[in-house]
Amino acid sequence: EVYLVESGGGSVQPGGSLRLSCAVSGFTFSSFWMTWVRQAPGKGLEWVANIKQDGSEKYYVDSVKGRFTISRDNAKNSLYLQMNSLRAEDTAVYYCATGRYMSNWGQGTLVTVSS
Amino acid sequence: DVVMTQSPLFLPVTLGQPASISCRSSQSLVYSDGDTYLTWFQQRPGQSPRRLIYKVSNRDSGVPDRFSGSGSGTDFTLKISRVEAEDVGVYYCMQGTHLYTFGQGTKLEIK
Q1: Over the stretch B76-91, which tens digit does the pLDDT of each residue have?
Q2: Which residues does B contribute to its contact with A (CB < 8 Å)?
Q3: Low-confidence ranges of chain A (pLDDT < 70)
Q4: What is the 3-class SS of chain B, one letter each residue?
Q5: Are B104 and B41 in contact, with CB atoms under 8 Å apart?
Q6: Nearest chain A Cα distance for residue B91, angstroms
Q7: What is the pLDDT of residue A110?
């Protein structure tokens, strides 16, 4: 069975940084694109970023370009999202998902940006 | 940017009755490879999203056959043939042809 477990969320002040992790099991991680999606409290889903199997291609939503960096470690079956210069509007539950078209999802980790 | 517009945003349905959700895109979702990357997700209350349908009409493993997807170009539909209590939640369409954009979500509840 496929498992994705996010961690690293928490509360941070505007301008601060956080690094999210997603540990996966149950499938061959190195064979799949991976995706981050977020959901602000009470709001809909927003695609954030994704990364190719070997890390050679990365794509971001415009609102996080230059501030967030997606990466992966295939040896550790792990996906990451480095978030810098955080803003209040980045407050959300962040989900990792399998593939470009999000076939499996984790339970999410909450990021709160507030002073 | 591609805008995805769902309707209705709120859908009260009687148990056992059919339900239909429309999703329209501001641009054609036909990709250069000939495929159409339109996906449907279900998010039950308090849960993570779950993919139901990919590439317009392909049902994911474990998804009941009462769920079906159809459409082409810019107009797409998710249909539930007979709504059950476990179908309560929010349904999202998403395009994956021009990067990725979700619709606003349609909240399905039981009348």
Answers
A1: 999 999 999 999 999 9
A2: 37, 39, 41, 43, 48-51, 54, 60, 90, 92, 94, 96, 99-105
A3: none
A4: CCCEEEECCEEEECCCCCEEEEEEECCCCECCCCCECEEEEEECCCCCCEEEEECCCEECCCCCCCEEEEEECCEEEEEECCCCHHHCEEEEEEECCCCCEECCCEEEEEC
A5: no
A6: 10
A7: 98
